[in-house]
Write a structure and sequence with these properties.
The chain is mainly α. It has four helices and no strands.
């Protein structure tokens, strides 16, 4: 089962608006899904979501170290 464009748009919105706590909870939930049996296509989608969540967490950590709020980067110049 492949995910639809709407699903990926929802994931993008979540990553843009989620708190750090929500991202941590999402990471744990998606990791738990990886432990469940799934067909190859579904597993690939779950892995993609997991990577996106990890990337968002890493970016936020790097921004926090620099002292740059993520909202500043999201605002148009």
């Amino acid at each position: 089962m492949r995910m639809t464009r709407d699903f990926w748009n929802d994931i993008e919105k979540f990553l843009d608006t989620a708190s750090d706590t929500q991202l941590t909870e999402a990471k744990a939930a998606v990791f738990a899904l990886l432990a469940e049996p799934a067909d190859r296509a579904t597993r690939a989608d779950i892995k993609a979501v997991y990577r996106l969540v990890l990337d968002e967490i890493r970016v936020r950590e790097q921004l926090a170290q620099r002292g740059t709020p993520a909202t500043e980067l999201a605002l148009p110049a």
